[in-house]
Amino acid sequence: MIDRLPHEKGFHVSWDQIHRDARALAWRLDGKGPDNGAWKAVVGITRGGLVPAMIVARELDIRIVDTISVKSYNHQAQMEARVTKSPQEELMGDGTGILIVDDLVDSGKTLELVRKLYPNAHFATVYAKPSGRPQVDTYITEVSQDTWIFFPWDMALQYVQPFRGTD
Ligand SMILES: O=P(O)(O)OC[C@H]1O[C@H](OP(=O)(O)OP(=O)(O)O)[C@H](O)[C@@H]1O
Ligand code: HPA
Ligand SMILES: [Mg+2]
What interactions and quaternary structure are annotated (predicted)? Predict the structure, then answer.
């Protein structure tokens, strides 16, 4: 249970919002692949990248979708990033023609690690914080470094008190 926020601000993203933003990301990437504009495959960085990866693959009609597992946070505490599952080696090569998608880039540690493995891949995220921006090739929305982004898969609807309170 998270009982304390280390950051001052919260940016709450709904399913509808992530769907719209991931679609906008797909449209921005359309026709930008190295093979006559085409992309070879989409690779989602688990777990957060899987939702935008699916939406991008759907929009761009890419049927080859793989995953790379990188764990770099335990709740909101950052730790050393490590790869716990790799995508298919024959598919990846040096990353040429591969779209690697994540939900966000924060410090940039996750993408930095994946970039070392696939230097020619194209790195795309839906959201980006300033420290991670050098690691990402294409993104949709920038938020400040002291903002924590809350994704819909980590939230639930719940009752809130009226503004004026109750008797
Ligand atoms: O730029 P960075 O500072 O490395 O942070 C960004 C990464 O952190 C989060 O993943 P997390 O490791 O929490 O795993 P998850 O996607 O499974 O939630 C997020 O989904 C990005 O992948
Ligand atoms: O702002 C964030 N929100 C959710 N997960 C994250 N992982 C790193 N930064 C964030
Ligand atoms: Mg992640």
Answer: Homotetramer.
